[in-house]
Amino acid sequence: MTQTYLNGEHIYYAFLAGTDEIEKSRDFLNKINVFPVFDSDTGNNLAHTFNYIVDAVDPSKYIGNTLYALADASLNGARGNSGIIMAQFINGLAREVGGEKRISGKDFAEKVSRAVPYAYSAVSNPVEGTLLTVLKDWAEALKKAGGETGDFLKMFYYSLEKARLSLQDTPKKLKVLKDALVVDAGAQGFVFFLEGVARLIENPNIENLLKRKSSAVKIDETLETVGGDINFRYCSEALIRGKNLDHEEIRTKLESLGDSLILAGTDEKVKIHMHTNKPEKFFSGLMEFGKIIEQKVDDMENQFQVVNNRKYDIALVTDSIADIPQEIIDKYQVHVVPLNLEIEGSTFLDKMSIKPDQVYAMLDQLNEYPTSSQPPLKTVEKLLDFLCRYYQSLILISVSGELSGTLNVFKNAAKPFQDRGKRISVINSRLNSGAQGLLVQKAAQLIDQGWEHSKIVKTLEETISKTKIFVSVATFKYMVRGGRVSPMKGLLAKILNLKPIVSLDNQGKGISFAKAFTRSSNTKKILSIVKKLERENGVNNYCIVHAGAEDKALLYKRIFSQALGKEPDYVEEISPIVALSAGIGAVAISLITGDNKP
Description:
This protein has 598 residues and is an alpha+beta fold. Helix content is 52%, strand content 18%. It is elongated.
């Protein structure tokens, strides 16, 4: 049998077959992943990338149309270094093929060869001995064979063998591979893809391939870091859309923020990957070029600690509305799920890809007031799947169900694992901000002391009703813009110079607790309330949180330290999402009363 031309359906079925082979091999790819960091997710990233592509595309008989569809889907679905490099290669190939209906094997080999530089251009510092090398060697072999025969099948088998040989040579070119006694994981994934195509050629069972398409995006994405030094903590990815996007300009803007910088895409849509310690600067830099339509931030240090230095048998999970210092999160290995914050078409991850001061700086210049939403169900499921493989049980503490849909997301994400027998408790804190943070801190301390799961949950449920928050709001302006207070009430409050004290009722719903006409009298009222709680029940723990009002927070620290005879557990900036309601300048005290301090 000979094959002298390729059309769109041929290309699509090849992608289906290659994807199927990567999916079967992804656990192996994860295990051998040591470059650029010992980050065992290359199999997951390649599987996600290619599964997304084949699931999103319906093939055309025109090879040009199919490749353009595959290229566009690759940008949306690309994950990790290898996934984004492949996305750039596919985009390059689509550009080179153009609008062709079908193409000869020789011409296809020429287009593939021309597409390789696109892949190299995606990487800021290309390293040989990786996917790039094997991709290049395969393309050169395909082109060489194309000059000798018009039969695509002969060309393909010759180039596949050269790709295998190139793969075996990767440890000779990259010391980290040689030391680990492995080949490059991304390169191995590409060879698996080619071997999947070879199996399709040998046994063209298209019907079976099409059956697996319906479940293509339902793969289990794991999160793991298995060893090695992590110089840049956060694996950050973004998909931006704009006009005349200049890849080199974007690269220049970002390259000082970390390493592993990879860009793939067109002048209208670009996928960017980077390892950085400042994800908020990574994303704010991208806002200058276009709208951020998708983003991801993985805490590789946290993942590494879970896999290699897990402290407890119980995992503690909360959401980003819990205002608690990073040092406490790290100390107790707490896992934080960020809520989404949308700012004029760009979506950010609360506290991860945008920080409070960045929101405050732009707030008064925005035409549309920012909005927030609960984390995607898939994001939480992905985290729980990872944690369930390392912990005996999980405790999830959510922001008040009256304030956010996050509680339901937590419950829905946990249910499949609970149905399979995993012990997961989901707690509605009926709190937010610093009050929720104190509850999370208490849970962490109980876990650290070795308390049993059910006893911890029971104690936390009892503690919720003893936990209070009192927020001194500086202005109604932001409540009006956010729709929580009507413009008429806001105007009246401004005329009367009202300074409200906001709290939460026993169900976790926001309430106006009291009002004053000056910030000082407002503070006196809160001080009076706290002193009364201290007299009646005692204050075990307390913290001070603020929205861009560090001076007021330090004043609160001094006042309440004197009144309670002890300093707060911490002083912390609040979540930007909470600040959108409380407003810039707000300061709050949260406390736990009673005699059950751990």
